[in-house]
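Appendix B, example 12.
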Amino acid sequence: MPAWDALHLKWQPIVTESTGTATSQTTYRGLLAALFASWSECRTDSRRKDDMGFYLRTSLKAGPFRFNLSPSGVGVSVGIPGFRVGTGPRGNYVRVAGLGTSYFGGQTPVSAPVRKGIARGPQPANLNTDVVMQELTGTPVQHLTAAHPSDLINQIQTAARRQPLWPWAATAIALLAVATAPLGLLLLLLGAPAVWWLRQRDIARRSVVVFYQVEDAPAAKYEQFTGSSGFVSRVHRVWQIEAEGHLHTTYQRKVNAGASALIRRGSGSLDLAGPPVLVTNIAVPSLHGKERSVHFLPDRVLVRHGRQYADLPYAAVSARMELQRFIETDSPPTDSQCVGTTWQYANKSGGPDRRYNNNRQLPIMMYGRLTLTTPQGILMVWDFSRPDVAASLADALNRMR
């Protein structure tokens, strides 16, 4: 068994949001020991009283590296030959309490003024027609990153941009094995450990490790957020609204089931997983889309667009829920309420246009729409097959402000 090499990382001085002062290394170690004792006691109480359910684990693993929080700091160990402690991801420690937020190895996020969400009209089914579609993307994420850079975001950006190498190595070995058969079997036996080692290296290079300690009022708020019905209830369908276009002419409405607007949407999901590159000890409520996602940490909101990330304070995020009558052209979710029907080609009175032979009847479903806006220009719109889930998320998110 290979020997385990361990190293306790030495962090930068603490920067405390409430005071803005730096403490000495001696004070840092004493404070970290006290924080660890408090955190351990809080963990014990959470298991007994079940009041801190968002904690998932006390040690974190990123490839071959294992991170642990101890009174002397954040320790990292490695037990696979060929890896050294200094080559792995760097650990981060964040304490969120009633008096402020302390970051070890990071910078305090920038606060921003609050603006209420913009109102949006009802959106119908997305049938093909000559309609000008407006993208619902808002301000590009990279603009926010450039305006308010932070150490944690820089780490996440770097990890997200790194490409995994092990699939290329596995493909090359497989092709060589086929080309050199029957000696290729020996090549596969020798190459498999190398591919596994390279995969562990890729996981470590594409991981950002963050330990969170959440206390006092922020802990109660975050516990309510992670335990809200939006993230623990089963909702059959979630969509991210990508673009919309209003229908102005009679013909446009006629061939689009009498709707007032069209949308383009993509499938989404909600869970407690967080970004793929983030390795942390807490549950992270998240809304995932194909190109855009939003992740809710105890101290900030992470927004993803492609491989670009930005962070925002909760005070800058406004959430609004509204009921949405939606003409569904796909199979309707079984957990949604059908509130009426219409025809794909409707006349002025709402009845079927007899000139179309393939005129099918479409259900009108009642969905819940969640709209997230910020003063910086971020706009994200999600539809849920259960309106109560969207309402629960909006309420829980506004309580985090």
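The longest strand covers residues 361-373. Confidence is low (pLDDT under 50) at residues 1-51, 82-88, 106-128.
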